[in-house]
Amino acid sequence: MAHTCRGTIPLATAHIGVGDACHLVLTSGGRSYHLKATSEAECQRWVSALQQAKANATVLMHHSDDSGDEAPIPHEERALTQGVLKTLASKLDDLSTCNELIGKHGAALQRSLSELEELRASNDNTDKVKAVNERATLFRITSNAMLNACRDFLDVAESHSRRWQKALHYEREQRHHLEETIEQLAKQHNSLERAWRENPSSYRPQDGDVSDDNEEAEFFDAMEDSTNVCSKRTHQHSSVCCISQTISFSSVCFYMFVCFKDTSTNHMQLRRTRRTRIPDKPNYSLNLWSIMKNCIGKDLSRIPMPVNFNEPLSMLQRLTEDLEYSELLDRAARCDSSLEQMCLVAAFSVSSYSTTVHRTAKPFNPLLGETYELDRLEEYGYRSISEQISHHPPAAAHHVTSQRGWTLWQHITIDSKFRGKYISVMPLGNIHLQFHSSGNHYVWSKVTSTVHNIIVGKLWIDQSGDIDIVNTTTKDTCRLKFSPYSYFSREVPRKVTGVVEDREGTAHYILSGTWDDKMESAKIVESSQGGGGSEGKQKTVYQTLQPKLLWKKYPLPENAENMHFFSSLALTLNEPEEGVAPTDSRLRPDQRLMEEGLWDEANIQKQRLEERQRQERKKREAQANQALEDGQDIEGYQPLWFDRKTDENTGDATYFYKGGYWEAKERQNWSQCPRIF
Length: 677
What we know:
The chain is an alpha+beta fold. Helix content is 36%, strand content 23%. The strands form five sheets. It has a six-stranded antiparallel beta barrel with strand order 11-12-15-16-14-13. Strands 1-2-3 form a three-stranded antiparallel sheet, with helices on one face. A two-stranded antiparallel sheet has the order 4-5. The protein is elongated, with a radius of gyration of 35 Å. This is Oxysterol-binding protein.
């Protein structure tokens, strides 16, 4: 096992003892486990198997110790240690021999004593008394030998214990120093990565810094062999950049980015610098229970809530925040294997929850017709548009197009219930992802989010349920299981596991990790049927290669705890931008006032907008009733940028982007947009 957990026993250091006829005892670390077999034969088989496993574990442990990266032990020190171990082993053999002799002579002495008891009444007992004396003498000699062997063993162990303790202390200090060094390197790497994400333009070289020969440059992925990180081949020369294996792949990508530039364009365009902070969250206190105690069982979107329990982002912006790790889809678009591609798509589906671990506040419920755009063509090659297509129940349509080989769209309806102690948020609908080169089309849905401790205690959020990802083109599948948190569970909190299978149902990859930190994949090399699982089903045991990191969460920005725990991307989502549609969430006044810390003013604006929306809904209902009385066809609310159609893969009615938004933005013609703010 790569790690231990509660209940595991290291066999290499365990003691295996035999109790009564069918009992055996495993002792390790001060704990004893008493096991009972159904027969003496079965007990002996278990003892033999455990002893063999102990021997194997001991060999593996020594092999692991010998194959590490530690500094070489001096020859004299190694020879001395081996000599001591041989002496201890010899003394231990002596103890075993004495133990067997004591048992043998003790049994003989017991038999002689029993015979002497039977002959007590007889006068001819001289020979028996002599035999008892001889056996008692042998038993005493053997016992003395046992005591001497124990003393010798103890003397040797004690004479070297101080030196071993010193060596152990030195190794612990070395390990602690190494951990501190690695942690410092990781912090430096994260700082560099965050600095680049926040201001990529400051790391781009000037036009004169790079030769025009770079137009013929070729770059190669560093995922398989990190010793040769990047290669550059030109007409005149070739060079190889080699970076230490301790640098992660993302660091290599960062290094390549700042060292080289794409000269396919004739001029360098300066990228916009995005903001890295927002005003600190005010410390307002308000009793949530006093507001919600009369709302148990109701739809959360229908409960009038002050902005005190919101975060300064709309649900459309939270939906767009799923693109935080869009580079996973960029990598997936370059995959030749659909199964490897599935692993990256699964990691992307999990990564969308990483920003929620500290985000217990409720996003603003968008107004009907509200939109949100995110144009990141320059930085990440994609642009996104979303629109609120229904107010009750709240529903949004979302469309993303990437120049790096993929398109994503989704139609999500939010069903939320307040249960007294907790709030459940259930996103209904499917997420679609299609890769341009292969045509692979993936479909999956979201899991349930639950906010706990509404009445008393600190609010915390959990994700639970299953995500079934299906490649409708190749029929590959992946089921991800989000384990709900349990106080009594020994599992890692926020655990996510999954298996990637082909169309035949053959498993190829095991996925594991947590939704708030990272996901890994391990290629399966062999599978077999193990012991019984739940409900009488047999468990499948997989043998895998070493896991590979698929996704790792970015560190939060500095002072994030005072900025609603926003990620680097979330901090930029509500940043004012020129030229957006008049229905864009950035222009919503109550949300803007809340971000600026003016919560009282924000509450006034929120009530105004909600009342205006209620009046608009009543007007539409009156128009529908009038049309019904006149015998005319009733046409409900029609979104501006999305059309309702039947999905060919799922057969469900969903909303597809019908185009026109980016063209309208280019012309700055928003005449068709309603006035909702």
